[in-house]
Write a structure and sequence with these properties.
The protein contains 10 helices and 11 strands. It is α/β, with parallel strands linked by helices. It has 2 domains: about 30-115, Leucine Dehydrogenase, chain A, domain 1 (Rossmann fold); about 140-275, Rossmann fold. A 6-stranded parallel sheet has the order 1-11-8-7-5-6. The structure holds guanine.
């Protein structure tokens, strides 16, 4: 029997509706949440992501400040801009689109962002809080989007074996940290497999919840999935489509095989993607709400 499709667009729509309500409440107090989106260089994929973040801000009533630095910008240029945005009271959240050009030391850039404006949850202070289960930092956009997808589709990770494929700082590591917390919507037994794991399938076949975030098109095949597992596909890969001669988007999971084995699965596009941006918007509003409380 084919798996139930977890509709990320619909669930992101619910999160966005909650965000819109919170923005309205802030407006009653005369406040507008603000997000700065920084793009260094002219990478076409990054431009698309940045534009969609700016568009979503407009849709939800969030002020956005789009800053584009040239591809040859220096570290000083970037750090000066971060300093300016840290000091700007209209800006509650700062996002620097990753990856930056090679001359830019991303770690130093992240370290320079005011942790209270670190809506990506990339700053080591917020990553540390996440790991020890403190809730007064931020929750990273894609991993938290995955948790919300599970929750809103009635999948409780508690007591389940969650296998995460991939150990990136953006997805795999924080997602594993979140899933293992002794907290509602988590409390899973977590295994992380990665490029250094000799037999990945040995672990994935035991997963009740399988999360693919490895950046390899259609890496997870049907035979790597336990029948009835919940499969979450974080991958966004562009591959040539011989039928049209153009590129098409695929995830890290071979969807047509997986859909026959899993009990529930996220599609690509329309699964995790819309959640990432919905959580980013929510985080920007959280940053604004906290600033008001601190004032
Ligand atoms: N590049 C890919 N994903 C992300 C993200 O979540 N945040 C930022 N800043 N850059 C990214």
């Amino acid at each position: 029997m084919a798996a139930r499709i977890i509709d990320g667009k619909a669930i992101a729509g619910m999160v966005n509706e909650e965000t819109r309500c919170r923005v309205r409440k802030l407006a009653e107090k005369g406040r507008t949440p603000g997000l700065a989106v920084v793009l260094i260089g002219d990478d076409p994929a990054s431009q698309v992501y940045v534009n969609s973040k700016v568009r979503k801000c407009a849709e939800l009533g969030i002020y956005s400040d789009r800053r584009v630095l040239p591809v040859d910008a220096s570290m000083d240029d970037v750090l000066r801009l971060i300093e300016e945005l840290n000091a700007d009271p209209k800006v509650n959240g700062i996002l620097v689109q990753s990856p930056p050009p090679p001359q830019i030391d991303e770690e130093r850039v992240i370290a320079a962002i005011d942790p209270d404006k670190d809506v990506d949850c990339f700053h080591e202070r917020n990553v540390g809080k996440l790991l020890i289960g403190k809730t007064d930092g931020f929750r990273p956009c894609t991993p938290y989007g995955v948790l919300v997808l599970l929750e809103k589709s009635g999948v409780d990770p508690a007591g389940k074996h969650a296998v995460v494929i991939g150990r990136s700082n953006i997805v795999g590591k924080p997602l594993a940290a979140m899933l293992m917390q002794k907290a509602k919507g988590a409390n899973a037994t977590v295994t992380v497999v990665h490029s250094g794991t000799p037999d990945i399938a040995k672990f994935t076949r035991d997963a009740d919840i399988l999360i693919a975030a490895i950046g390899k098109p259609q890496f997870v095949t049907g035979d790597m999935i336990k029948p009835g597992a919940v499969v979450i596909d974080v991958g966004i890969n562009r591959i040539p489509d011989p039928a049209t001669g153009k590129n098409r988007l695929v995830g890290d999971v071979n969807f047509s095989e997986a859909v026959e084995v899993a009990s529930a699965i996220t599609p690509v596009p329309g699964g995790v993607g819309p959640m990432t941006i919905a959580i980013l918007m929510s985080n920007a509003v959280t940053a604004c709400e906290r600033r008001i409380r601190r004032a």
